[in-house]
Design a protein that fits this description.
11 helices
């Protein structure tokens, strides 16, 4: 069975991307299992191949409502027809990105998709997500290091500093593990959806199913203002305009150009 993981910093499109995978009838998708009650912190930065294989078997047979997308958090998520014998087990996480290096190093059969979104849109989306950005917080104090959200925890990846860290790490991993790690840009997924998905599925040896094509059409033609919805026909990487203060957007853009990461601004 194929083992696949999706990683990205919070508010970068991981939920939509995970549902694209979930729409494939031969995929068993598990939602943030390392944050769920049943599987919390099941993997560590030093996990062995035996540990990793055991984790995938465990989540395949999970009974956890969060992992199985049966919790109230997943209200409104689509339901898909599934085969009795899935050919791939996939999980998605926005936490625990510190585990990726070890996972790739220990398990040569594991493939990982890393999604990167324009950091301006990522920070703006976080700011507008009431369950993630407390209304009492000051954006000017939080946008860079997200200290009140991350709380010094190594598994948390909010704020621009973490975006920068993760994006540079993803580039290194894609170069180091070209058959195991692939970056997908949110903008490409949003603007050229079917071709982006086709290329991503080819990378992990999945066909583009008719059910997936139907979901792509629905997710791009319907819109739900809920910040956690996977139906976002109006979503785009220019939505940060009018949300982020000019001082913050200019500082982010300046740092992006200094790091030669301007390809991720579009």
């Amino acid at each position: 069975m194929k083992k696949i993981a999706i990683f990205g910093v919070p508010r970068s499109g991981t939920s939509w991307l995970s549902q694209i995978f979930n729409s494939h009838p031969d995929v068993a998708l598990r939602f943030q299992p390392l944050f769920s009650f049943e599987h919390k912190e099941r993997l560590t930065p030093n996990a062995s191949l035996v540990d990793i294989d055991g984790f995938f078997r465990e989540i395949l047979n999970s009974s956890d409502d969060m992992a199985l997308m049966k919790s109230k958090v997943h209200k409104g998520y689509p339901e898909f027809q599934k085969s009795d014998s899935p050919e791939a087990i996939v999980f998605k996480e926005t936490r625990y990105l510190n585990l990726i290096d070890n996972l790739l190093n220990k398990d040569k059969d594991l493939q990982i998709i890393g999604i990167v979104r324009n950091p301006l849109a990522t920070i703006a989306s976080w700011y507008q997500a009431p369950k993630e950005f407390d209304s009492s917080w000051d954006l000017f104090e939080e946008w860079m290091y997200a200290e009140k959200k991350n709380l010094g925890k190594v598994e948390e990846f909010y704020g621009f500093s973490k975006w920068l860290e993760v994006t540079k790490k993803f580039i290194i991993l894609q170069n180091k593990y070209p058959s195991q790690f692939k970056i997908i840009k949110y903008s490409e997924l949003n603007n050229n959806t079917e071709n982006a998905v086709k290329g991503m599925f080819e990378f992990v040896s999945l066909n583009l199913s008719s059910q997936t094509k139907d979901f792509l059409l629905q997710s791009k033609s319907r819109h739900d203002d809920d910040p956690y919805s996977v139906y976002r026909s109006k979503a785009n990487d220019e939505s940060w305009r009018g949300i982020l203060p000019e001082e913050i957007s200019e500082e982010i853009s300046s740092q992006i150009y200094k790091e030669n990461l301007q390809d991720y601004l579009g």
